[in-house]
Amino acid sequence: MATKAHPDTDYTALPELGADVFTAPLAKPAHVGEDWIEPAQTDYSSEDHQVWDDLFKRQMEVLPGRAASAFLAGLDKLDLSRGGIPEFGELSEELGKLTGWSVIPVPMLIPDHVFFWHLANRRFPAGNFIRTRETFDYIQEPDVFHDVFGHVPMLTDPVFADYMQEYGRAGWKAMRYNRLKSLGALYWYTVEFGLIEEADGIRAYGAGILSGPTEAKFAVEAKSPNRIMLNVDRVMRTDYVISDLQPTYFVIESFEDLYRQTVERDFDRLYRNLAPGFTYANSAVIDVDNVINKGTLEYHLRGGRGSGAAPV
Ligand SMILES: C[C@H](O)[C@H](O)[C@H]1CNc2nc(N)[nH]c(=O)c2N1
Ligand SMILES: N[C@@H](Cc1ccccc1)C(=O)O
Ligand SMILES: [Fe+2]
Fold first, then answer.
1. ipTM summary value
2. Closest C-alpha to 300, from 229, 239, 226
3. Which of 18-32, 91-105, 205-219, 268-282 has the lowest mean pLDDT?
């Protein structure tokens, strides 16, 4: 009989789901296996590569002075400015030398437990496809530009790289406590939309901020959003929107501080005390908050995306 991996201690084999570790199934395309890895990266057209180059150029016009230094250093270390959609094999080779991570192609959003399993093994699942000109400004599904440009440079930072692996390891426990949404909020407010205090001011390290020009400006310098120091107990109770700019961003002092607040703390007690849903609205400022600046929320009060409100 095949031995079954124990989700909290053995990260080598994909654990089987059961009544205690359950996530909603996603329709798996027939050409991928249980690991959801694409047999090969897409054979991109020259237009696909051109879309990448244009997205890259647009980001480089806004990121200096707004992106975290770890991110900009990562772009450099991986030579991501050389043009065209990176080949994942070559990219993994370079990244592997730096922090032991690799990048694997996946077709779309993959099930939570598979996503966690890859992260726990220092494999970053990246969307294979690239957006088109029609969806140039905004897509909801993560494509290769969001995943590779936005996430992969941060994986060159040794502390952040460890945090990502530990996040993957943390997933199954959260599932057993039925608190995946709470852990998901932590991912959202750090990995996707995190800000960091640097000597020259606040900078972005979250991939959702760094992969688009509007949010890069909005998150770092607009008057609308709240900017609050990260507090894990608070963030894991906070709702989030996936379809618009964030009303609130959470700020870390350093990646070491993020690591201390999360990896070096046992979440069991926290999970036991968390309500199954969210307690705080994504625009709320509450008593315990260490507020850097309280936003006007003007953008959201005017109706947000689709209303024509300026992201100010
Ligand atoms: C909560 C969980 O970490 C998150 O929703 C996962 C699920 N599956 C994913 N799948 C892909 N391809 N990319 C992602 O960022 C995620 N995120
Ligand atoms: N230390 C957390 C795990 C964790 C690591 C990294 C990020 C988030 C959570 C736990 O005991 O569950
Ligand atoms: Fe992402």
1. 0.94
2. 226
3. 18-32
Compute the distance between CA of residue 248 and CA of residue 225 in angstroms, rounded to an integer: 5
C-alpha dihedral, 78 to 80 to 84 to 88, nearest 10°: 30
Mutate to test the pocket of ligand 2, among 177, 230, 265 (most ligand atoms within 8 A of CB): 265
CATH number of domain containing 125: 1.10.800.10
pLDDT reading at 114 higher than 60 = yes
Q: Does residue 51 contact residue 135 with C-beta atoms inside 8 Å?
A: no
Kindly give the number of the ligand 1 atom that is closest to the alpha carbon of 114.
8
Give pLDDT tens digits for 223-245. 999 999 999 999 999 999 898 99
Distance in Å, CA 207 to ligand 3 centroid: 6
Would residue 59 be called left, alpha or beta, if left means φ above 0 and alpha means ψ between -120 and 50 degrees?
A: alpha
Tens of pLDDT, residues 272-305: 999 988 999 999 999 999 999 999 999 999 999 9
Per the CB < 8 A criterion, the answer to whether 216 and 277 are in contact is: no
Ligand 1 atom closest to Cα of 111? 8
Query: Is 31 a known ligand-binding residue?
Result: no
Domain that holds residue 226: 44-307
pLDDT at residue 1 in the model: 40
Q: Give the chain's radius of gyration (CA, Å).
A: 19
Q: Is 146 annotated as a binding residue?
A: yes
Residue 38 is assigned to a structural domain of this protein: no
Averaged confidence pLDDT in the chain: 94
3-state secondary structure of 29: coil
DSSP helix/strand/coil, 193: coil
**Residue 206, amino acid:** G
- The rounded distance, in Å, linking the Cα atoms of 84 and 88 is 12
Residue 273 lies in a domain: yes
Number of domains present in the structure of the chain? 1
Q: Which DSSP helix (H) or strand (E) runs through 63?
A: none
